[in-house]
Amino acid sequence: MSNTDEHTGPHRVLDHEGFPGRWVILETAEETDGDRFKTRMELDERGELPPHRHPSAEESYEVVTGELEVQVGGEWTTLSAGESVVVPPDTEHAFRNPGPAEVINVHRPAMRFEEFFRGFHALKTERGVPMPPDSLGSAILLAMLVVEHEAEQRVVSPPHWSFKLLARVGRVLGYRLPE
Description:
Elements: H1 3-8, E1 13-15, E2 22-27, E3 37-43, E4 47-53, E5 58-72, E6 75-80, E7 84-87, E8 93-97, E9 101-108, H2 113-126, H3 136-148, E10 154-155, H4 160-173
Antiparallel strand pairs: 1-2, 2-3, 3-9, 4-8, 4-10, 5-6, 5-7, 5-8, 5-9
Helix pairs in contact: 2-3, 3-4
């Protein structure tokens, strides 16, 4: 298999069937000895990822085509092709795309971001969990995933304790995340 095939094979593609688009995994934690997890996000549908933070990892966005609006610490900036931003660890940030865009996204260190994103993909495509969740069951499943990966990802609002509470309710009710 050529290097190109390795980066475009089906196990490398997370197609969310709507926002947040189609993601191609370019570098895994294993391939970078834990240094980074890198994807190419193809954002076709308009959408917004809510404010979140990564307690011990930085995240960067590099716009290849189109535009991406990025909020860092409460301030929105529009990035065009060729522009990038690095979000320091534990800094609130969000993004939205006003139209089609292609973005290189890197989390450093890699931690378990790949597992988190694969879990999010499975919730969206296998269980039909929309973003944002539209039912109590969807909210419980998303909360369970966020709590399982709280070292990697924390949603800013609602507060993290509410995700922990929903995750606990989900476990009591027998909810299970996709394998």
